Amino acid sequence: MPAGEFFTPTDRQLIERAIRNAESVSGFDFSVFVGASAGEPRRFAEQLHAQLDDPVHGVLVLVDPVTRVLEIVTGSAVRRSLDDGEVGLAALSMQTAFAVGDFVSGITTGVQQLGEHARRPQMLHTDTP
Questions:
Q1: Closest C-alpha among 91, 40, 90, 102 to residue 65
Q2: Cβ proximity of 95 and 101 under 8 Å
Q3: Three-state SS for 72?
Q4: Most buried among 43, 75, 80, 104, using CB within 10 Å?
Q5: How confident is the model at residue 1 (pLDDT cuts 50, 70, 90)?
Q6: Domains of the chain by range and CATH?
């Protein structure tokens, strides 16, 4: 089923808002793909990630609701701020929501967690004593 039929316009707005918030907090680019993965899911997710405008600074979340696959691919710059454990925690939150059929909440919560964990370090002013 195409993602356009899977989500209502309100659902899509909620997901888009979560993406914008994660990007704002972290400074990285987030993309979510919901649909059938062609071939091996991890390889397909990596191919989608490589097609992003700036894959080095990008995060791709692939959700295949039919086969119940979740893949999260991060660029090399993102991995300096977001480790595998943090990605795993976000994936666990997403899978928990997916298990009860709540894909919108799972995606929005997971993307927000990824953004928070990849948060830009707070800048300290060097001109104050």
A1: 102
A2: no
A3: strand
A4: 75
A5: very low
A6: 3-117 (3.10.310.50)
